Every structure is written in C-alpha cells, then in structure tokens.
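Table 4 source record.
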Amino acid sequence: MNERKHQETILVISAGLLVFYYFFRDLTWLVWGALTLNLIGAFLPKIAGYISWAWFKLAEGMGFVMSKVILSLVFYIFLFPIAMLSKLFTGKDFLLKKDSITTWHDKNHTYRSDDLEKMW
C-alpha cells in the first residue's frame, strides 16, 4: 500500500475512536488515542504503515471468525428448525434413506433431439 492509503486507514480508525467517544463520554482516552493516531499518520508514515498493516490483519482475522459464527447462527436459527418442522409435520424422508441403500433411480427413457432443445 502507498502512504496515502495508510493515512486514510489511520483517519478511519481515529474517526471510529471519536464516534465511540461520542457515546461513551467518560472514556477520554479515546480522544487522546484519536489525536495520537492522527499525529502518527501525519508525521510518521512508517509507523502508520505498521498500524495500517495490523488493522487489516485484525480485520482479516475477524472476517475469518465471524463468517463461521454467522453461518452457524443461520444454520441453527433458520435451517435446522425448518428441517425439524418439515420432518415432524410431513414425516417424509426427503433423502430417501430408509427405503434403499442409494438414492440413484434408473430412468428408462429414450433420448431424442427434442430433449436437448428444451432442456428446462
């Protein structure tokens, strides 16, 4: 990344700290942290590059973890209850596991050219 991108990242982090200060007025260290980051971004580009790198690594790690958490929540909150309700009320075995060893069914059909013209 270039120096401009590092400065933009530092400004976004400091703006986030100021937004948190707006909601939590008793945490004055947030203002000092934002001011310090802005000064680092303006006068120490090498340190700003390290802070930017660490920020993006943190975001990458959070993305890795949160994707698993969100997918797990979607599964256990939406999909699992729908599957259990479907099994409870219909009693239908959608995977056809009980009747046979395989789900493969033979289809005795002679294919013609019409089958390939309108497949869907």
